TrEMBL record:
One of its GO terms (biological process) is proteolysis. It comes from Photobacterium sanctipauli. This is DUF2817 domain-containing protein. Pfam families: Peptidase_M14. CDD domains: M14_REP34-like. InterPro entries: Peptidase_M14. Residues 30-306 form the Peptidase M14 domain. SUPFAM superfamilies: Zn-dependent exopeptidases. Signal peptide: none annotated. It comes from the Bacteria. GO terms for molecular function: metallocarboxypeptidase activity; zinc ion binding. Belongs to the peptidase M14 family.
């Protein structure tokens, strides 16, 4: 690994203050439309699902309402399955994979589960294609009480308001080339630390919970996704993004300690997906389908355990 501190904002070794964060925010530009690309697809599901607004981002409440899609005929005797996408708004297949699952597959699982889908947790991040929110806060490190991220706080409140335990949670993400070229460098600059260059894995992988790894669940997800796209190999040291693999295409993180989305509940079965959209081996649509395969692979596995 090489150390690199090249980032156009801030002073090397010093954390950003309000001035640097404002400078960063001024560089963010709207590049696509949440309303046109996401909300229209959510609205198209209203004849088959219960769609409700669970909040709005204060940056622009009318432009950034937050929606949850729930299966109809809620049955408290059934376990609940949660699917989240767009916690990092720039991770496109997380959003559109969640919507594709809702449109094409979710109803098939309502015999066994109450289905809850939050397809775009960070709509401002979706529009500017960024990992952070306007305060330079990463929502996916902010799932804790008194969160500094509106995106995380709204999602946690929605899940709490369900009034039930979550049995399975699939959180849909991507690892992109821009993680290395932009976002990790920005994080190091923001935090006043060194940036160590890392290899971006070429392929799909999952992140399990160090405290509750559920290896058979992870394997089921990997086996389902490999029918759609390739699985990421480890680097020469047997790691993926700096963490040792526990089996093909699987690493573990301490989810609650890191305040990650997949640690927001005490679900028995949890996995975080990581699609690689920059590979020349896949199309955007295949990335979306891979996310659907991850969700169905997880749910099919859990059904066998019920």
């Amino acid at each position: 690994m090489e150390i690199s501190n090249t980032y156009p904002i801030g002073t090397v070794g010093q954390k950003w203050g309000d001035e640097e964060k404002a400078q960063w925010l001024a560089q963010q530009k709207i590049q696509r439309s949440y309303q046109e690309e996401v909300v229209t697809k959510i609205d198209a599901l209203r004849d088959r699902f219960d769609v409700s607004q669970y909040g709005a981002l204060s940056y622009n409440p009318e432009k950034y309402p937050l929606y949850v899609i729930k299966s109809r005929n809620w049955d408290n005797s059934k376990p609940t399955a949660l699917v989240t996408g767009g916690v990092h708004g720039y991770e496109t297949s997380g959003v559109h994979g969640a919507l594709l699952f809702a449109d094409g597959e979710a109803e098939k699982y309502t015999e066994h589960f109450n289905i809850v889908i939050a397809p775009c947790v960070s709509p401002w991040g979706y529009e500017v294609i960024n990992r952070w929110n306007p305060q330079a806060v990463d929502p996916n490190r902010s799932f804790f009480e008194d969160s500094p991220s509106e995106e995380a706080a709204n999602l946690m409140a929605m899940v709490k308001d369900l009034g039930c335990d979550i049995l399975v949670h699939v959180d849909l993400h991507e690892t992109t080339d821009s993680d290395e070229t932009e976002f990790r460098r920005a994080r190091a600059a923001r935090d006043g630390i060194d940036h160590f260059e890392e290899m971006i894995p070429d392929g799909f992988y999952t992140v399990g919970d160090t405290e509750n790894p559920q290896p058979e669940l992870q394997k089921a997800v990997i086996d389902s996704v490999r029918k759609v796209t390739h699985i990421a190999p480890p680097d020469a040291s047997g790691k993926i993004i700096g963490s040792p693999i526990t089996q093909e295409g699987v690493i573990n993180y301490p989810l609650k300690k890191l305040s990650l989305c997949n640690g927001l509940s005490d679900c028995q079965y949890g996995t975080t997906t990581e699609v690689y959209p920059d590979s020349d081996k896949v199309t955007d649509e295949e990335c979306n389908v891979a996310q659907v395969a991850a969700v169905t692979g997880a749910l099919d596995y859990v059904i066998k355990q019920l």
